[in-house]
Amino acid sequence: MKKRPSGQEKNISYPVRRMLGASIMFTYRHTTKVVFGKGALNRLGEEAAKLGSKALVVTGKHFAKKHGYLDRISEALKASGVEPVLYPEVEPNPSFGTVDRGAEIARKEGVDLYVAFGGGSAMDAAKAIDVVATLGGRAADWVYPKVVSEKVKPIIAIPTTHGTGSEVTKYAVLTDTERGMKTVVVGDGILPDVALLDPEPLRHLPGEQAAATGLDALSHAIESYFSSKATPLSDLFAVEAARIIFGNLPCAVKGSLECREEMLYASMLAGYAINIAGTNVGHGLGYEITVRKGVPHGFANLLILPHAAPYYALAAPDKMEELLDKLCLSGLPGGLKESLEALKRNVGAPMRLRDVGFTEEELESLIERAVLYRRNLANAPLDLSEEDIRNIYLSAF
Fold first, then answer.
1. pLDDT more than 90, % of the chain
2. Which of 31, 42, 208, 309 could form a disulfide with 336 if both were Cys (CB 3.0 to 4.6 A apart)?
3. DSSP-derived secondary structure letter, 378
4. pLDDT grade for 26, boundaries at 50, 70 and 90
5. In terms of C-beta density within 10 A (0-12 exposed, 13-18 middle, 19 or more buried), how is residue 126 classed?
6. Handedness of CA 161, 163, 169, 172 (dihedral sign)
7. Contact, 55 vs 217, CB < 8 A?
8. What are phi and psi of 54, to 5 degrees?
9. In three state form, how does the secondary structure of 14-43 look?
10. CA nearest 120: which of 151, 158, 147?
11. What is the pLDDT of residues 344-392, one digit of tens each?
């Protein structure tokens, strides 16, 4: 009998989900054109002119204007014959209201193209705005379990962080402020048409944000690798992303633009991985941490992920050994769990739930809310009981 990750012996048989069998079959299709490298942003006008004549520029409230990118984007669009309509109103963890207001502007202006410039919040908001403006209704009408299979209007995504991979994913994560929950609009219909990955805007990224977004990309890589939906192709993306992140996140946090360029590439790879395999325990248990305490998404995921690692090892010991070997972590004390903790310490991430303001009395309500994120938890390589979730939170506390 295997020992439970909590260290307690119990007569319990974990229902392990199939990850890879003797016969492998999968379907893969990705429609996003990726332009990667220094100067990629200079291609905006050229790419936009192929896709539309009037663009809603969706971005955050501060970064794009502060560093001159809002003017630069507007000028590039105008020079190519595309009229820009500005919507610099996206907040971190964008709400349904932000999406619905953006969609109203898009319909009124008759835009036929969306340009998303920013971190995951701006790109996710743009995708959702496109859905609502094109297909009707409100943001709340389009969240999972609804799937957007219809192709919406073209989207050009330009990331300014190295974490979400939203520029190549079929996900748009939104906050339902009324229920206090993270939700998602999902479907191949919202895959961006063009992704311009230019490392130049990353020079402005504060170190703490570099750490948080980089850890988000790492959580995508690790969770997709241990997903019940993992395939050999998603594993390729996931392992390479994780390898790059372990090697480059510390210097990226310190400000190295070369390391940040590597991280931008890794974030994209991890985005490809979750497109195929999805996320699971880190996201499912981490969302509520962000909702309650405003903890950056990547930090929230990595408060959980080290404590999910023993469950991954229980479900897929061979895959765990293979991952550790490919990441050159084999033989290190503590395996993946301690390697993740060491990386967190190195980049200044919060280490425990109590570090971000949780009390032990709040854990039970965390557990009650976490089980609502079944979309994520269903992708785990084993079925987590309520007791397992409690043990993960207690370990993280």
1. 86
2. 309
3. T
4. confident
5. buried
6. negative
7. no
8. -145, 120
9. CCECCCCCCCCCCCCCCCCEEEECCCHHHH
10. 158
11. 999 999 999 999 999 988 888 988 888 889 889 999 999 998 899 999 9
Residue 158, strand partner residues = 117
Phi, psi of 89 (to 5 degrees): -125, 10
Structural domains in the chain?
Answer: 33-202 (3.40.50.1970), 205-396 (1.20.1090.10)
Q: Given the structure tokens 């739930």, which residue do they identify?
A: 353
Tokens of 83: 């009229």
Structure tokens at 131: 């859905």
* Structure confidence at residue 11 (pLDDT): 40
C-beta separation of 381 from 316 below 8 A: yes
Q: Are 272 and 168 in contact (CB under 8 A)?
A: yes
Q: Which residues, at least 6 apart from 153, have a Cβ–Cβ distance to it below 8 Å?
A: 52, 111, 112, 113, 114, 130, 133, 134
Residue labelled with tokens 């397992």? 388
Report which of 258, 196, 202 is spatially closest to residue 42, judged by C-alpha positions. Answer: 196
Start-to-end CA span in the chain (Å): 28
**What is the torsion angle, in degrees rounded to the nearest 10, for the CA atoms of residue 324, residue 330, residue 336 and residue 342?**
-120
**Dist. CA 292–CA 288, nearest whole Å:** 6
Note the pLDDT tens digit of each residue in 133-178: 999 999 999 999 999 999 999 999 999 999 999 999 999 999 999 9
**Could you tell me whether strands 113-118 and 83-90 are parallel, antiparallel, or unpaired per DSSP bridges?**
unpaired
Which of helix, strand or coil describes residue 57?
Answer: strand
DSSP 176: E
The answer to whether 241 and 270 are in contact (CB under 8 A) is yes
Q: Which amino acid is at 375?
A: R
Residue 358 neighbours by CB under 8 Å, 6+ apart: 289, 292, 293, 366, 397
152 three-state secondary structure: coil
Residue 308 three-state SS: helix
CA-based nearest residue to 196, from 112, 253, 268, 129: 268
How far is C-alpha 252 from the chain's CA centre? 18
Task: Go through 246-278 and write b for each residue having 16 or more CB atoms within 10 A of its CB, e for each that does not.
Answer: bebbbbbbeebeebbbbbbbbbbbbbbbbbbbb
Q: Look-up: residue for tokens 């990331």?
A: 159
For 210-253, the pLDDT digits (tens) are 999 999 999 999 999 999 999 999 999 999 999 999 999 999 99
